[in-house]
Design a protein that fits this description.
By secondary structure, the chain is mostly helical. The protein has one domain. The radius of gyration is 16 Å and the shape is globular. The protein starts with a helix and ends in a 9-residue tail after the last helix.
Length: about 100
């Protein structure tokens, strides 16, 4: 745990304000895809993200997160951040001899 805490500050300074994940696509970006399957995939990603957010919402309220952190937009940003950081942590765990399967 100390390793994560020591290295978290540099990571926090490099986080992006937004991510280009399908779940973050609005109506305009979705229609710009122009391919039926791509439009369907983007709409499905948004629907799935909203469902996951709704499922987690009660827990987030119980954790007393501040209102700005309870929004769907904040959920999308957190998802993008997790997806962006995941490969880095998997590599770090591999370098320490830790299997990703043991971390899930």
């Amino acid at each position: 745990m100390k390793l994560c805490l020591l290295h978290s500050k540099p990571i926090l300074l490099t986080l992006l304000p937004s991510y280009s994940i399908l779940a973050a696509f609005g109506e305009l970006e979705t229609q710009a895809l122009q391919v039926d399957y791509a439009i369907w995939a983007a709409q499905k990603a948004v629907t799935k993200a909203k469902y996951e957010w709704e499922q987690a919402f009660t827990l987030m309220k119980e954790l007393k997160l501040k209102p700005p952190l309870l929004t769907f937009r904040a959920w999308i940003w957190a998802t993008g951040t997790a997806l962006d950081l995941k490969p880095n942590y998997v590599r770090a765990w591999a370098n320490m001899g830790i299997s990703y399967a043991n971390q899930v």
